[in-house]
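Now for a chain:

_____
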Amino acid sequence: MIRTSESGHQPNGRAVVKVRVRAIAEGGEANRAVTELLAKALGVPKAAVRIATGVTSRLKQVSIEGDPARLGEILRKLTAGADE
């Protein structure tokens, strides 16, 4: 589940999206669930989403391959109203 009420943007302009998955954080299952959820929400292949930092942390940075303008627009829609 993507929690748009708790998503938004940092002062540096980076998008912040709070994601909650039911998978346990064991054997990479939760990380896999996060990347699959983000891929589905952004309309990109699962292989286009990877965890760049925070593999063992609750806070993660992800790298997403694709058209930056399109991905940015989707993120803006996902986080609309969250910064207000």
